[in-house]
Design a protein that fits this description.
Number of helices: 5
Number of strands: 4
Low-confidence stretches: none
Order of helices and strands: HHHHEHEEE
Shape: globular
Strand order of the largest sheet: 1-4-3-2
Mean pLDDT: 81
Helix content: 40-55%
Structural class: alpha+beta
Largest sheet: 4 strands, mixed
Strand content: 5-15%
Number of domains: 1
Length: 139
């Protein structure tokens, strides 16, 4: 009996991690895991990152680009197995990355309205898993 349990435990250690039901569906992830209501342009941006290798967003000042970018970063880290995804944050200046984008990403990492996300966003502009694995940062 104990030998069977040991073999089952050993087999689980080598089993592939479960695939997230949200992989490829960031809109559903944001609606269900974040309890967010997305207007049409935000849905289009979110789905584009799942459907295309590159996504560019033409926008104006204060239209919510940082919020949607932070949600996408949180989605990417959440739906991939720990350590298999990395999110890089870029903006024209360090101040924009730190004060605007990374601030939103830190808020997104806390996920106060839903299930906890892996790891935590740090003031150093990094996102680390609990084991110390770096999964996000600025460039």
């Amino acid at each position: 009996m104990a030998v069977d349990l040991a073999w089952e435990y050993a087999a689980r250690q080598f089993a592939p991690p479960p695939v997230s039901p949200y992989l490829g569906d960031p809109v559903r992830w944001m609606q269900e895991r974040r309890r967010a209501h997305l207007w049409s342009m935000r849905r289009e941006i979110a789905q584009s990152i799942a459907d295309h290798e590159h996504t560019a967003v033409k926008s104006c000042h204060d239209a919510g680009q940082s919020w949607i970018a932070a949600q996408i970063a949180a989605y990417w880290i959440d739906v991939h197995p720990p350590g298999e995804a990395f999110v890089v944050s870029r903006a024209p200046t360090y101040a924009q990355v730190h004060a605007i984008l990374r601030k939103e990403i830190r808020k997104a990492a806390k996920n106060p309205d839903g299930d906890p996300l892996p790891g935590r966003g740090l003031q150093s502009d990094e996102w680390k898993l609990d084991d110390g694995t770096l999964v996000g940062g600025r460039q």
